[in-house]
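Q: My hope is that you can spare some time for a protein that puzzles me. Underneath my words sits a plain record pairing an amino acid chain with its backbone structure tokens. Those tokens are not coordinates but codes from a learned vocabulary of shapes. Thank you; the sequence and its tokens follow:
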Amino acid sequence: MTDVFMDTYHRLPVTLVKGEGSWVFDNNGKKYLDFTSGIAVNCLGHNYPPLVNAIAQQSAKLIHTGNYFLSDIVSAFAQRLVKACAPGGMKKVFLANSGAEANEGACKIARKYSLNKYGAGRHTIVTLNGSFHGRTITTLSATGQDKFHVNFSPFTDGFVHIPVDPQALDRALDEKTTAGLLVEVVQGESGIKIQTHEFLETAARLCAQRDILLIFDEVQCGMGRTGTFLAFQQYMAGGAPLKADIVTLAKGLSGGIPSGAVLAGEKTEGVFSQGDHGSTFGGNPIAAAAGLVVLDTVDDPAFLAEISRKGNMLVEGIKSLNHPKVKEVRGKGLMVGVDVDTEAWPLLEAAIARADGAKNRSGLLMLSAGANTLRFLPPYTISDSEIGQGLEMLKELLG
């Protein structure tokens, strides 16, 4: 069944056919507890009734229009999204398809802002070692991991990767050459690496002093994943809540329908002019209908508090296993990384092989983030009981 696909993925040995809540089922009827959410995409779980209904109703009305025209549902979604991101300083939005596309848009805004204000030559985007910003040539250029760069040079110039260190940051943010700083509050692909308060406060201060745009890539850690609507909202700068100049979103934005967004703050809301940027499928009505359900569900203090509580339960549960193979546990909300003293991939395979319909035994879907890190991104709707079941399976898998 897979011989027609290009060999781009190291796929796990399972073919999924349906889902329900925190569970998915394969073509042999085996059942798996999903600790991946489709890599942070299915944030409300599988077959979430309000989401399914919104998609079905919108598909019967209007599937696509193209951006020569507005649609009522897309306008409502854009207004609701900007409102949800307003505490982070956001004013306007461009709707896209994916995280990579959103990050490309953010880089274009940063470069045009600097060009308009300071002239040519001030175009460098600074990113961090361990970052991941997408798979296009430009977003690979932004990504600070050498393993993603093999075979694809030459890359887009104008990107500098630095260590996560305030002094390195101070040196890199050059007022004469630098347009923006692109940061993930939690680096997902490199192992759930969480930025410190000191680093982000320094970043905000230096960017403000030097008029360098502060850009947060919230593709994986945003949309409530860490227990606040945007992850950077948990940080302060100069005694006040941290603000951004540009924010990018995708993954969980529309609960499973491809969707992305670039949000612009006060400095950047007027940078793009007609013809500067575009997207055939960005702002799709079905994605907008789904996104409204996600926003109405997630952008709620009580719901976000539950994400934090469940995340703490998961982290503390893993720590309480006191397993010798577990070396470190890191997490923010339902974004958790577990360093183990063995290769992660065989554990992912064993977690799937555990499923046995005849014995009424479930499997567990997990992710890796590097050779020795397990990554857990469960749906926000997961129950305490399901977290407990996952912990029991993890304990068994670790041996």
Q: What stands out?
A: The mean pLDDT is 97. The first strand starts at residue 16 and ends at 20.
